[in-house]
Amino acid sequence: MFWNENGILSRRAELQDFINKHSPDIILLQETPLRPSKNSYFANFHCYRTDRENQNIHKPNGGTAILIKNHLPHHHIPTPQLFYIESTIINLTLPKKDPIIIISTYIPPSSDPNFFTLDIENLMQLGPYCIFGGDFNAHNKAWGLNNN
């Protein structure tokens, strides 16, 4: 599952309730606004996260994370240098299956599509099987928004 958290610390109880009710194996989070000094722990999950650099200390924003159940075979992949998007990445290595790269992605609304696609293309080079989930800030008039 993926969830635009818009503040993991302020919505922790809501996320924990969802986990208790639905028992997801992997959770992709966006807009976590964590700082390196803040930890977020969920029982039976390992948490990988990428905090936005140069946070405003009074109003932090951005950031991505992946929560994955401890028993699932996986490893963290350090995020390569990205210029227009934010991502956290794991490699899921299930027995007798090809590895799957799972990427929690946040594309800020100010990102230019002429450039952030370069970051996405670079991430797709991490492996033959990639799953992206996240907040892409995709807008469309068909969804009741003012612009495409």
Can you give a write-up of this model?
This protein has about 150 residues and is of the alpha/beta class. The protein has a single domain, classed as Deoxyribonuclease I, Chain A (4-Layer Sandwich). Helices cover about 15% and strands about 30% of the residues. The protein has 2 helices and 8 strands; from the N terminus they run E-H-E-E-E-E-E-E-H-E. The chain has helices at about 10-20, 115-125; strands at about 1-5, 25-30, 45-50, 65-70, 75, 85-90, 100-105, 130-135. The strands form 2 sheets. The chain has a 4-stranded mixed beta sheet, with no helix packed on it. A 4-stranded mixed beta sheet has the order 5-6-7-8, with no helix packed on it. It is globular.
Topology:
Blueprint: E1 2-4, H1 12-22, E2 26-30, E3 45-50, E4 64-69, E5 74-77, E6 86-92, E7 100-106, H2 113-124, E8 130-135
Parallel strand pairs: 1-2, 7-8
Antiparallel strand pairs: 2-4, 3-4, 5-6, 6-7
Unreliable stretches: none
Derived from helix and strand composition plus strand pairing, the structural class reads alpha/beta
- Based on CA atoms alone, the radius of gyration comes out at 16 Å
Number of helices: 2
CATH superfamily: Endonuclease/exonuclease/phosphatase
CATH architecture descriptor? 4-Layer Sandwich
Mean pLDDT: 86
CATH class: Alpha Beta
CATH fold-level label: Deoxyribonuclease I, Chain A
Major β-sheet annotation: 4 strands, mixed
* Number of domains as seen in the coordinates: 1
- Helix percent reads 10-25%
Order of helices and strands: EHEEEEEEHE
Strand content: 25-35%
**Silhouette:** globular
Total E-strand runs: 8
Distance between the termini: 25 Å
Spatial ordering of strands, largest sheet? 1-2-4-3
